[in-house]
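Review form for a predicted model. The reviewer records the input and the model, then writes brief findings.
Reviewer: anonymous (R2)
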Amino acid sequence: MNWDDTKVFLALYRKGSLRSAGKALDVDQATVGRRISAVEESLGAKLFLRTSKGYVLTQAGDVFLKNAVKMEHIASDLVRSVESIDEQYAGEVRISTTDSLGVDFILPALRTIKDRYPSIKTTLDTSTDIVNLSRREADIAIRTVKPSNPDLIVRKLASWPIGLFASKTYISQHGVPKKDESFHDHSLVVYSPHYQRGETIHVGGIICEKSIIQLGVNTSFMMRQALVQGMGIGEVAIPLAEKSKLERVWPDWTASDSYDIWLVTHQDFKHTARLRVVIDSIADFFESMSTFKNA
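Model under review:
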C-alpha cells in the first residue's frame, strides 16, 4: 500500500466529502476521487458508499480503516523519532491556537523568534477545532482546554479571571445594569454553542432570558469585537478585555471559572531544538506581560 493513498482514505473517512478531504490535503476534490477509485480498483473492493449524508464506509472499508490507522501511527512515530533528535535551530514549527490568542499574544512572541532564529519558520493555524498532535496535525497547540492524553506534555501559560464588560459607548448610551433587574433594557452577547444547545444562559452569574440576547458568537475574539462595536454586555477574560479597552461592568463580580491557557506538545518532541526555542519564547512572552501578572 502507498502511504499517500492511505492518507487520502483517512481524510475522506474523517471529513465525509471529497471537497472537505481535498481541502485538508491541499488537493482538489477530483484528485481525491481518483485516488480512492484507484485504491478500490487495486484492492478489488468497494471502500466507501456515497450517501446523502456523505461518504460512509463499507464492511471492507471498516477493515481497511483499522489497518490504515495503525499505518498512520507507525508513520507518525517514525517521523517523531527522527525529529526528536534534531538539534538544529532551523526548520518548520506548526502552531495551532485560537484567533484571539494568536492576534494578541502568539504573533508578538513569534516576532522575537524571527529576529533571533531566522532559520526557524513558523506556521500559525487559528481555529476553534482541537488538533490531534499524535497525528502531527500541529507541533504545538495553545489551548483553553487541558488535554488528558498521557503522550502529551502540558504546560500552563496563564489562568485569567473572567469579568463582565462592555464598551464605553454602550455604557454611555445605556448605563450600567442593576444586578436586581436581570439586564432589563440591556443587550447581551453570549457564546452561541451554549444557547444553540438549549442550555440555560448565565451572564454575570444571573440567569438570562433569550429575548435580551443581541448576538451569539463562537470565539472569544468575536466576543471582544462585538463588545467593542457596542453590541451589548458579555463575559471576557480580564486581560483580553483590557487589551480591547473595554469597560468593566460590576467590578466586584468575577466568574467562578477561570480562562486557562495551556501549551501542549508531544513528548517525543521535547528534545527538538527548534520546538524548545518556540515553546520557551511563547512562555517567556506570557510571563513578561505585566497584564498577566496582575490578572
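Findings: Residues 59-83 form the longest helix (25 residues).
Further findings: Confidence is low (pLDDT under 50) at residues 290-295.
Recommendation: see findings above.
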